[in-house]
Each structure stands twice: as C-alpha cells, then as structure tokens.
Design goal:
Blueprint (H helix, E strand, L loop, with lengths): L2 H16 L8 H29 L4 E5 L3 E4 L2 H8 L2 H10 L4 H7 L3 E3 L3 H15 L4 E6 L7 E5 L2 E5 L11 E3 L5 E5 L2 E6 L5 E6 L2 E13 L6 E10 L11 H8 L16 H24 L7 H4 E6 L6 H12 L4 H11 E4 L10 E3 H7 L1 H18 L5 H7 L2 E2 L2 E3 H7 L4 E3 L2 H11 L1 H6 L4 E3 L6 H7 L2 H11 L20 H26 L8 E6 L8 H17 L8 E6 L7 H18 L8 E5 L5 H7 L5 E4 L11 H7 L3 E4 L5 H8 L5 E2 L4 H10 L4 H7 L1 H8 L10 H11 L8 H20 L1 H14 L5 H13 L4 H6 L1
Helix pairs in contact: 1-2, 1-4, 2-3, 2-5, 6-32, 8-10, 10-11, 10-13, 12-13, 19-20, 20-31, 21-22, 21-28, 21-30, 22-29, 27-28
Bound molecules: ligand 26Q.
C-alpha cells in the first residue's frame, strides 16, 4: 500500500463511521478507523488461508486454552502485515503519532499470567511458521482485574476492555453452537437393545464465537483465534422471566477467574470450562463432517491440544460427541480420542493441580460425569493384572469423591509434556511418576518460548535497530541468527551502541515512573526487575529482604560504595490470596520508607508499578539491567519473563529452576548469576525434614535485624501484614526456604554490584544474553509441538510439494 492509498482509506473510513474529516479526528476515531483498515487488509488473507486449509484438507491443530493474553494488537498486526513503517510515516505526515493511537487500544487481558501469555505467543508463532492452527477459548466480558494501590494495599477494579468495542473481532452468529448444562440424565433401552442416554431439564445456552485473525509474520497466513461468548438462545427466551434469571446465564462468560487455587471449586468456573470445551469440540466435529471422511481419519485431520487441565473435559466431551451423537462404539471412539488429544502440564504445585468434587460435576455436567465414570471403570479393568492395585488406585481419575483432571488428561491423550527440561524431568520422576510407569512413551518436554517479534522488534526498537546494523536484519525472520552477535563480544563500539540503546529505554521508563508514581529515578542506576504474578514460591519477599539489607547498610554507613540501584516490581496477587497481598503492602511500605529517606542519597530506590500487564511489560523489559528469577528450585515450571528479559539484554540472577537452567546452559556461567539450593537439595530437605528457619535466624545477626523490621515498627504501617510475614518465615518454618537461600542470594547480588561498575564487562554479559535468546523462540517451540505431538505441517511445505 502506498502512503496515498493509506491516507485515502483512512479519510473514507472516518467519513463513513464518524462523519469526520482527517483533520478533525481524535486518537480514538483514528485508532478505530486504522483498525478497520488493517482488518480489511488481513481479511482477504484470512479468507484465503481458511479456504486453503479446507480445500487442501490440511491437518489442523486447535489449541484449547481458558486463557489468552495477547495484549494490544495494533502494532503487532501492522508489523506482521509488513506495513508498520509505511503507516507510521504516513501518520507522521499528517501530524499523528502512531504511539498515541496505539495507547487508545485496551489490552486484551483474558489471562492471568504465564500460561495465557504463552498461548498468545504460540498463536503468533503458529501463524508466523505457516502452521494450520487455531485458538479456542472464552471471550470474557471482563479480563483480569485492574490493580490499583490505595495506601499501599492492592485494590481490584473491573477491566472494562470491551467498553468502546473490539475492532479486531468478528462475531459469527452462523457458527454458534448449543451447550447443555445441568439437568438429569438416565439411560433408556432402545428396541435394538442398546442403551441411550436421555437428558431431562437441561439448560441450553448458546455459544456464539467471536473470531480474531492471528496474522503471520509477513507470510500471507492468517489463522483464527475463536473465543466463545454465552447468550440465551432465542428459542429459550420465554423461559427466562426475570433479569436475574438471565443474569445467571450471562454470568457464564462475564469474568475471567483470577489464578486462585484457594477459591477454586466454583460452579461457574466448572461451567466455563465445559462451555468452551463443548462449543469448541462441536464446531470442530461439524467442520470435520463437511470433509466427508470416515471417522477413523479424524486424527489425520484434527489435533486438539489441552493447555493445562482447564480444558481436560475435552476427553469426555469428544467421547460424548462421538458415542452419543454419532453412534460410534466406545472402543473405536476412545482410540480416536487418545490419538487426537494432547496435554501440557504447567505446574507441580500440589494445590494448583485441578480436582473437582464429584457432587458438583453431577450437577453441572451430568452426562460428562457418567462418561468419566465409564472412563474410570475401564481404566481400572484394563490395567488389572498389568500393574499393581496400588498404582491403579493412585492413578485413576476418580478418587476421594473428586475428579482428578490431570489424570483424565493423561489417560485420555497420547502426549503429556512439561514446559522446561527440569520441569518435565520432575513430572517423570516425582509428580506424575506413577503415570510415567504406565505410559512412558507419552511423556516429553517442550521448553517454552517467546515471540521475539513482540518482545524485541516491537517493544525495543532502539535495540532492534542496533542489531540490524551489526548483523543485518535476518534475525527478524530467524531469531537463531541473533547468535551472530557473539562476534561482537570484544567490539567496544558495538557494545557501546547496545548500551546506548538500553539507556534510551531506561530514560523512557524513568519518565513513565515519574509520571505515574511521582518517584524520580536515575537512568544511571541499575534497573533491577522482578515482574510476575505474586506468589510465595516466586519469592518476591526474598528480593525485599535484600533491599532491607542494603537499606540498613547504607543507614549504618552512608558513604558505602554501592552502584545506585532501582528495584522495580510488577505483580498482581489473586484477590483472595491474603499472604500475597500482605507482601505487596510490605513492598509498598518499604518503597515509601526508602524513597523518602534523603539520607540514602538515592543509592537505592524501590518502585512497585501498579497494574502489571502485557503493555507495562513492554515498557519495563527493554529497560531492565537485572532480571530476577529467584523462585525456589523445582517450583517454577518454566518462566517466560526470564526469556523476554535476556532477549533485551538484562543479565539474570537466578536459581536453577524452570527454564533458568537452559538459559544458564545457553549463556554460560560467566553471563548469569546462579545461586541457591538445587532442586535435589530442596527434595532432600523434604525427605529429611530437618530444615529450621529459626536456627538460621538465631545464628545470623543481620538477618535478625531484617526480619525484626517487619514487627518492631521499623517498616511503618504493616502491623498486621508484618506479623503475618514474620510468622510465615519463623513460626511456620519458611515453606520456600527464603532464609536458607538468602546468604547466597546476597553474595550473587554483591557480585552484580561489582561487575556492573565495569561497563564493558557488563555489556559483554548483556550481549551474550541477547545473542543466545534466539534459543528460546516460540517459533521453534511450536515447530517441535507440530512435529512431535500434533503431526501438522507448514502450509508452504505443502504447497511446494
Ligand atoms: C486455578 C483455579 C481457579 C481459577 C484459576 C486457576 C488458575 C488459573 C491460571 C490456575 C493456574 C493458572 C495459570 C498458571 C500459569 O500461568 N502457570 C505458568 O505457566 C507458564 C507457561 O508454561 C510457566 O512459564 C510458569 O512457570 C507457570 O507458573
């Protein structure tokens, strides 16, 4: 498209939709008009892609995820369509700043954190690699809550992301499906002797899909992310007499549940899970039937991926559709189901492994529960005589009046993968060891990855441009080419350019911090960043203990030699997770105490930016010098902010947990700061049960002073929260070994303090991180899924044949 064509199109759209001339339009009208134009451009490619998959009968994967976290799409769509620069300069010609328009768009925040963001990186990569793949999820009216701080406390506000409408989606009423919930089911014997389930008093709701094009990176491919929204079917309208009754239906897709193991077990959440699973499976089978192929070919045309256990009802629902609705016999249907489905596990935390009370399942999805019972019954009988009774009992889906969703997912699929090497190994050796004994061939690893397009090309243009100058722009298509940067390890001019690019982003972030919090920070300081959900196992509190250590040291010795540091946090806590909320309050109070103490001479500052989300991540990550990845070894399945931060030249301080292990292998010990217990040492403690945090406290004077600060009034305004934290660390013996790892953590931090002073030494480490971040491209991750698990092929390869 030429600049003139872009201008003409914009003009026309502004007239048609807003009765405005270009000169009179504000950012909102311009954003929506530009969005409409982009959609029109991509729609042609979208339709072609879809037609192509259909006529070629390409095998497609459907990625079922209860969360997608794309963030904003404007710039990413422009980049992937290859018109980012044209549009930017065209707008500049008429005195419009693209960045200002981009700010108009609300983040699409239909996810909690890592799992949802991974799903969206995968959508970008699947399209960019030309793989035939679709997303299937829920279109929540309200995404993850907006976080504000009031007196240092987290306050949650609703996320009204749809208020001004969503330019990217297409409502496809013609593709709606009915989903049936509640009621009772009994088995009726037919004339031919077969049993048939008969349902009574069911509630039928309509699932209406809203499709969003997932635009591949400059390859003409546009895939579909399909999100389902609930409606009352027209035929059922009469049944709903009051607004209240209508509301119970409409509540189904009203709001995303915050990651909240303590609040789990809610009826609406279970209904949500079934709702998008059932709608998704029905629409896939409807499509497959159009192909007029025999049922045994289903697994040659369709792969369905279960992202964590939230969509695990895919197993019984696919069985239901094949057996009840299409008359297949159980064995045949089961064989197909296992071949079609695959499952990813994202956690080893026991409390996060999903289980549903049987009584609730019977209420919400009675037929699905019957099918689960049959799956359980057959599982037990089939393994009889092959495995021990104990093993069979421990692994069956139904136990203790609950349905174990992970068991269902593993038994009903052909592949179970973890998300980093150490995590997958732990699944095999400990967490899911019983299943590994039964199905060793089903287990595999797929280390997570990230979309470099968003996290470097878009988020960090200064660095991206320097990289182009040094190694050409081939890395933009092939992130592995970033390795070429290793040739500049001793090139001072190159290292300086990279440092200057970092400085640009640090200054931008410093301005943002000043504007939003009033806190002044210097871009000469080390920007030390910990951004992730607030969880005890992620140990934001250990970071805070280190900050307090520095605080006391500077107070005692105001002239101490320390590189100025700004500690930056971003984290939401689940609304009912009181301990996490107490940590937020404590960080905010320490921040206030530190930032207002002139005697510290700006040697340390603490900034807790509210409402951490994808857009804020795009501001923080490019500006980071130090990446905090300090979870207790064995607890973080993978982590993905670790990858985004290294890609932007931050150097990592880390435990050997999740993908940190592979990051260390990629960059080498000289370019990462590793500390703390290993996963094996953690498990040794569990076995011996001889950990005593009290002992460490008693023997370490400095640590005593730090912990006492929580309860002796040193940190103001945390009477309740301080006591809670103090007790967690001492009375309840420090579940996540903060005190055990603290000393080692401090030593690593001191090394960072030293090394940062030698600018070239530091830049060299930073370079090694950027250069090796190509190892963590989500493009490679999805290609591995495509080959090993889904057996799907890129569309180019197919057309070339
Ligand atoms: C549970 C109960 C009720 C409602 C919601 C939930 C819930 C919601 C979201 C439970 C868990 C999640 C999300 C988990 C998650 O994001 N896990 C992260 O996945 C990343 C991608 O694989 C990993 O990198 C992280 O290590 C892992 O913590």
């Amino acid at each position: 498209m030429t600049k003139e064509e872009i201008k003409k199109e914009l003009r026309q759209r502004l007239r048609d939709t807003y009765a405005l001339e270009l000169e009179d339009a504000g950012p909102v009208e311009l954003f929506y008009s530009l969005g409409g134009l982009i959609k029109a451009i991509s729609n042609e490619k979208w339709h072609k892609t879809w037609k192509n998959y259909l006529t070629e009968e390409q095998k497609q994967v459907y990625y079922f995820s209860i969360e997608f976290l794309p963030g904003k799409l404007l710039k990413s769509n422009l980049l992937n369509l290859g018109i980012l620069n044209e549009v930017r300069t065209t707008l500049a010609d008429i005195d419009v700043d693209l960045e200002e328009l981009a700010e108009v768009e609300k983040d699409m925040a239909l996810g909690n954190g890592g799992l949802g963001r991974l799903a969206s990186c995968f959508m970008d990569s699947i399209a960019s690699c030309g793989l035939p793949g679709n997303g299937n999820g829920i279109r929540y009216d309200y995404g993850l809550f907006k976080q504000q701080f009031v007196d240092g406390y987290q306050v949650e506000l609703p996320d009204e992301w749809l208020k001004r409408g969503n330019v990217w989606e297409i409502r496809r009423e013609s593709k709606a499906c009915d989903v049936k919930l509640f009621g009772n089911v009994y088995m009726k014997r037919l004339a031919n002797g077969k049993l048939q389930p008969v349902a009574e008093n069911q509630t039928t709701v309509r699932a209406v899909p809203y499709d969003t094009g997932m635009i591949g990176y400059q390859n003409g491919i546009v895939n579909t992310m399909r999100l389902w929204s609930v409606e009352i079917p027209i035929s059922e309208e009469a049944k709903y007499q009051s607004l209240d009754e209508r509301r119970t239906v409409e509540d189904l897709t009203a709001v995303l549940y915050p990651d909240d193991s303590q609040e789990s077990g809610r009826l609406v959440r279970l209904a949500q899970e079934y709702f998008f699973v059932s709608a998704g499976i029905q629409s896939i089978i409807r499509y497959y039937k159009k192909l007029n192929l025999p049922w045994h070919s289903l697994s040659e045309k369709i792969a369905i991926h279960i992202n964590d256990t939230h969509p695990a009802m895919c197993v019984p629902e696919l069985m239901r559709v094949l057996v009840d609705e299409n008359g297949l016999n159980w064995e045949f249907a089961w064989d197909i189901t296992v071949k079609v489905l695959s499952y990813t596990n994202h956690t080893i935390m026991a409390e996060a492994l999903e289980k549903w009370p049987i009584y609730l399942m019977k209420i919400v999805v009675p037929r699905i529960y019957q099918i689960i019972e049959e799956i359980d019954r057959r599982y037990v009988t089939t393994l009889q005589g092959i495995h021990s009774q104990d093993l069979i009992q421990r692994t069956r889906p139904l136990q203790n009046d609950q349905v174990y969703m992970a068991h269902l997912a593993i038994i009903g699929s052909h592949s179970t993968n973890g998300v980093a090497k150490i995590h997958s190994d732990l699944l095999k050796s400990i967490v899911l060891h019983d299943f590994y004994v039964i199905y060793p061939e089903r287990f595999n690893n797929k280390t997570n990855g990230i979309a470099e397009r968003r996290w470097l090309q878009l988020a960090n243009e200064p660095l991206a441009n320097v990289i182009d100058e040094l190694i050409t722009d081939s890395w933009r298509k092939t992130p592995q080419d970033l390795k070429l940067l290793m040739n500049y390890q001793n090139d001072e001019a190159a290292l300086t350019k990279i440092r200057e690019a970092k400085l640009v982003k640090k200054e931008e972030l410093a301005n943002y911090i000043l504007k939003t919090t009033g806190i002044e920070v210097s871009s000469n300081a080390i920007f030390d960043v910990q951004i992730k959900r607030l969880h005890a196992y992620k140990r934001q509190l250990m970071n805070l203990l280190h900050i307090l250590k520095l605080y006391f040291e500077i107070k005692d010795n105001p002239e101490m030699d320390i590189t100025p540091r700004v500690f930056i946090f971003g984290a939401k806590a689940a609304p009912s997770y009181t301990y996490a909320k107490s940590i937020i309050k404590a960080i905010n109070e320490v921040a206030n105490m530190v930032n207002t103490d002139r005697s510290l001479q700006d040697k340390i500052k603490v900034v807790f930016l509210p409402n951490y989300n994808v857009s804020l991540a795009e501001k923080i990550i490019p500006a980071a010098d130090v990446s905090e990845q300090i979870s207790l070894a064995s607890k973080e399945a993978s982590g993905t902010s670790n990858m985004k931060l290294m890609l932007n030249g931050a150097v990592t301080i880390a435990t050997l947990d999740g993908a940190n292990v592979e990051i260390r292998d990629a960059v080498g010990d000289d370019n990462i700061y590793i500390f703390g217990l290993t996963e094996k040492e953690v498990y040794d403690y569990y076995e011996k049960q001889d950990y005593s945090s009290q002992k460490i406290y008693d023997e370490d004077e400095n640590l005593r002073r730090i912990l006492d600060a929580f309860v002796d009034g040193t940190i103001p305004n945390i009477e309740f929260e301080g006591q809670e934290i103090y007790d967690a660390l001492l009375k309840f013996n420090d579940e996540y070994f903060l005190l055990r790892d603290f000393h080692d953590y401090v030593k690593a931090q001191e090394q960072i303090n030293q090394d940062y002073k030698d600018s070239m030494l530091w830049q060299k480490k930073s370079l090694a991180n950027i250069a090796n971040a190509g190892n963590f491209s989500a493009d490679d991750t999805v290609k591995a899924y495509a080959e090993d698990i889904w057996q799907i092929e890129p569309i180019f390869a197919h057309t070339e044949k």
